[in-house]
Amino acid sequence: MKRFISGVKTGLPICMGVIPIGISFGIIARQGGLESWQAILMSIIVFAGASQIMSVGMLVQGASVPAIIFATFLINLRHLIMSTYVMNRLKEKGLLKKMALAYVLCDESFALFSMSEEGEDDDKFLFGINTSLGISWIVSTAIGCIALSVLPDTISKSLGIAFYASFIAILIPNIRKNMQLFFVVIITGIINSIFGIFFSSSTALILSILTGACLGMFIIKDKERGA
Prior knowledge:
12 helices
């Protein structure tokens, strides 16, 4: 129990950043035509901010379900790598416990967990982190859904762009450290615009994700290897 509480406390500071994004998603989902219960259920089942925002955008544009699923798969491929590390630390735990912990594993919980010291109660610690992040994301989504009905229209619309602003806030520091990443981002954006002329927006998004990922493999060098 002590290790679980420690995990909850570790995750709480990150929740301060998750809450405004969750509120933004709730607003965007309602603006995109989803019912409040659908948006909240999506946060419970999917629990992936970028994928949820993208899915809502693709739904609004009339994308097919297979296209949305495939695009979500591409965006979340990184979870395969993160989960490999986490499951290696939890290799002595039961399968059901590992599946439950993997269910709400996200970038933030992975970062906090990977920086923590290894111990016998790693599962309880990760569960504590996931609990605080999961609850804050679901509750903030509900707040966003309610806010759209309560707040003035101008404020609701301004909150709707907070998610995109957070993406920029995350991206800019990394771009400043690595101009190769900046080049990949710019090229991917241009490619998406070009593909958008010839394909539907959902197809253009999928193709640009694949192209950008391939470019990144060849352009972005690992500094630790001295490349």
